[in-house]
């Protein structure tokens, strides 16, 4: 079984424009799908992915409801795990977190460069606490974002600082921080958080990826692609070159993430009913 913990798509009517705009801002990246959920699901199927987490961002307070309703609609598809998003400065942020839980979503994604605050901004303390209370997972965009000029809002040392307030599963995407490998090795490896492998291919040197994997531990890694910007095949090519055993690959590509999202328990329930 294979779980991709980091993918994106957009509502059908917005997909063509949204994907063009995001791709352009990130250096005119060519997307690997048409930006829709159907396009994403087809690519995942072709590349042997059984389940995938879809991430969206509320870039302002007004968008929160629509973003989370979209995630809930996607979540109805068996292969999809939809994550919600809140804007930290929204007046009703706590209520929206409760609604995310009530909608059956498993986690919350933050992209602090789009949202205009640091990962360790003091306003995040009660938000991380609330997420823990609700039993949700936190995912953040970590490190550089090619669509923005510095300073970046979630560099490794600030993520380490924010972790003081975190008491629930926390994922720093892109190997702990896009284009921040030395900072990740220095400030984050070994701390109680997960890294996903998304957008690693071609962006991180294989020997550096191997050092991060070795220092942080296979049990805290989640396979992710960042599709439509990269594909599962691209990330498997990098991951497969790092000398992991078959059972370690299975942990990264399925078991760690399935345990985090309760997919392994779902499976057991299904088995019992047969
Ligand atoms: Zn992404």
Structural account:
The protein has about 270 residues and is an alpha/beta fold. It has a single domain, classed as Metal-dependent hydrolases (TIM Barrel, Alpha-Beta Barrel), CATH 3.20.20.140. About 45% of the residues lie in helices and about 10% in strands. It has 12 helices and 8 strands. The strands form 2 sheets. Strands 4-5-6-7-8 form a 5-stranded parallel beta sheet. Helix 4 (about 95-100) packs parallel to helix 6, helix 7 (about 155-160) packs parallel to helix 8 (about 180-190) and helix 8 runs parallel beside helix 9. The radius of gyration is 17 Å and the shape is globular. Bound molecules: zinc ion.
> Class by helix and strand content?
alpha/beta
Number of helices, counting only DSSP H or I runs of 4 residues or more:
12
Strand content range: 5-15%
Number of strands: 8
Q: Secondary-structure element sequence? A: EHHEHEHEHHEHEHEHEHHH
Q: What percent of residues adopt helix (DSSP H or I)?
A: 40-55%
Strand order of the largest sheet: 4-5-6-7-8
Mean pLDDT: 95
Bound compounds: zinc ion
End-to-end Cα distance: 20 Å
In this structure, how is the largest beta sheet organized? 5 strands, parallel
CATH topology: TIM Barrel
Low-confidence sequence ranges:
none
| CATH architecture descriptor | Alpha-Beta Barrel
Please state the CA-atom Rg, rounded to the nearest Å. Answer: 17 Å
């Amino acid at each position: 079984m294979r779980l991709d913990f980091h993918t994106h798509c957009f509502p059908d009517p917005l997909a063509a424009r949204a994907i063009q705009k995001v791709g352009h801002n990130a250096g005119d990246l060519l997307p690997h799908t048409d930006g829709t959920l159907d396009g994403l699901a087809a690519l995942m199927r072709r590349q042997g992915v059984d389940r995938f987490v879809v991430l969206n961002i509320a870039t302002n307070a007004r968008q929160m409801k629509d973003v989370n309703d979209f995630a809930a609609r996607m979540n109805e598809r068996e292969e999809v795990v939809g994550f919600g998003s809140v804007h930290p400065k929204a007046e009703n942020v706590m209520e929206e977190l409760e609604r995310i839980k009530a909608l059956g979503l498993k986690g919350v994604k933050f992209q602090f460069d789009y949202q205009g605050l640091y990962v360790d901004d003091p306003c995040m303390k009660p938000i991380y606490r609330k997420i823990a209370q609700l039993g949700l997972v936190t995912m953040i965009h970590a490190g550089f974002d090619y669509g923005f000029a510095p300073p970046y809002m979630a560099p490794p040392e600030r993520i380490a600082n924010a972790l003081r307030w975190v008491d629930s599963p926390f994922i720093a995407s892109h190997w702990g921080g896009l284009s921040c490998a030395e900072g990740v090795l220095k400030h984050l490896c070994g701390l109680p958080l997960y890294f996903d492998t998304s957008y690693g291919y071609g962006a991180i040197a294989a020997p550096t990826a191997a050092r991060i994997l070795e220092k942080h531990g296979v049990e805290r890694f989640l396979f992710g692609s960042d599709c439509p910007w990269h594909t599962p095949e691209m990330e498997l090519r990098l991951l497969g070159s790092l000398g992991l055993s078959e059972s370690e690959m299975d942990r990264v590509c399925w078991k760690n993430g399935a345990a985090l999202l309760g997919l392994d328990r779902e499976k057991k329930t299904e088995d019992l009913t047969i």
